[in-house]
Amino acid sequence: MVARRMDSRGGGLTRVLILKTAALGDVLRTTSILPGLAARYPDLHVTWVTAPEARELVQAHPLVHCVEVVRVEDSDQVRRLGERLAGQAWDRVLSFDDELPMCRLASAIDSDGLSGAFVGPDGRRAYTDDVDAWFGMGLLARDGREAADRRKRENARSHAAIFADMLSIQIGRPELPIDPSRVDTARFALGLDEHPPHWPRIGLNTGAGSRWPTKAIPVERVVELVDRLHVRHDGQVVFLLFGGPDEINRNREILGGIERLPGDVRVVDAGVENAILDFAAQIDTCDVLITSDSLGMHVAIARVIPVVAFFAPTSAAEIELFDAGEKVVSTSSDYCSYRTDADNSSITAERLTDATIRVLEAARSADALARRREA
User: Of 77, 78, 95, 243, which one is least surrounded by beta carbons within 10 A?
Assistant: First the structure.
């Protein structure tokens, strides 16, 4: 039974502290727990500790009341934050980072209930029994890395489902609120009103970070994908090219390849230096986003934008699309191996094209449009 803290007006509050700082996509998808927590605790008051770069991913959420930011690598900053938080009363602490500083932070805070990672009396990182379904697939697995990797490959449940079960709450979906005016600004800046409104807007977010390079598909495959989709739509389609700061050269190569294609291919370069919410607003202008397992994918899911998401080194099962898209999964033997050189050659332009056509057709149905309006 969770205790009820009294607020300054004499009412009861259930004060929950969430520790989740990295990575950006993981922070965003973890917001899926908030509706379930609110349903379980009608007097919920959430404080979320995250990295400075992730602040905007959680601070506008209607169920997050306070955001604290900390740089995990700054030990003094972590210590000061811990001292401040330890002076407050908490009903639950949800500790979802496995980095040592964050585990220490979780251990320093008194609460009526801790779920997640912490530092034990022996000084080693550990986690509470109730979160074994998630942490047992990670670096802190009690029976070693090999067993954790096997469980991760065999897992068939999404991150949202696993976390809902661990916390004994209803499954929810992530959410990223954006002011509609920001989307209007993005649409104008991208020049999308210059194209016929019935032409589909197809986003291309096919790169990846440096950790798992084969999350990304090669430049020449992206160009082939654009060519196929352009032909399938008789040239009546607009592409939006997305990427991060590390992908400026990659995107230049993609644009160069598209320029050499026959026909008048309409492509808009969205840039690679956008702030997070501007990036999200740009994605919001798409009818579908073709994406790697990346922040862009999580943004699209949170914004209820249909996606075609492809997976090679990482787990497709962990991703919940909430009936708004398709997954294109590697058929190679090293799928979900988390190897940096995993084979993604089976994620072909043909497979991605066919999936995109299906998703666009589904997204244009009356039922799909109604679901998005209600979300």
Answer: 77
Domain assignment present for residue 174? The answer is no
Is pTM beyond 0.85? Reply is yes
Residues 10, 120: one domain? yes
Residue 354 is assigned to a structural domain of this protein? yes
Give domain status of residue 176, yes or no: no
CA distance 370 to 335: 35
* Rounded (10°) CA dihedral 150, 152, 155, 161: 150
For residue 148, being part of any structural domain is answered with: yes
Look up the CATH number of the domain holding residue 34: 3.40.50.2000
Whose CA is closest to 361, among 329, 309, 326? Answer: 326
Beginning with the edge strand found earlier in the chain, give each strand of the sheet holding 307-311 in spatial order: 266-269, 238-241, 201-205, 288-291, 307-311, 325-329
pLDDT band for 367, please (50, 70, 90 cuts): low
Query: What is the tens place of the pLDDT at every residue in 128-151?
Result: 999 999 999 999 999 999 999 999
* 189 and 162 share one domain: no
Distance CA 277, CA 275 (A): 6
| Average pLDDT score over residue span 11-17 | 86
Q: Same structural domain for residues 139 and 215?
A: no
pLDDT tens readout for residues 350-364 = 999 999 999 999 988
Residue 129 DSSP symbol: G
The CA distance from 282 to 174, in Å, is: 18
Q: Distance between CA 56 and CA 177 in Å, rounded?
A: 10
Q: Rounded to an integer, what distance in angstroms lies between the CA atom of residue 221 and that of residue 349?
A: 6
What is the number of structural domains in the chain?
2
**Cβ partners under 8 Å of residue 363, min gap 6:** 287, 288, 306, 324, 369
Question: For the segment 240-293, what is each residue's pLDDT rounded down to a tens digit?
Answer: 999 999 999 999 999 999 999 999 999 999 999 999 999 999 999 999 999 999
User: pLDDT-derived band of residue 193, with 50, 70 and 90 as boundaries?
Assistant: very high
Q: What pLDDT sits at residue 368?
A: 52
- Residue 276's contacts (CB-CB under 8 Å, 6 or more residues apart) are 24, 53, 56, 57
Locus of tokens 């390079």: 213
Paired sense of beta strands 238-241 and 201-205, if any: parallel
**Residue 178: what are its φ and ψ, rounded to 5°?**
-135, 135
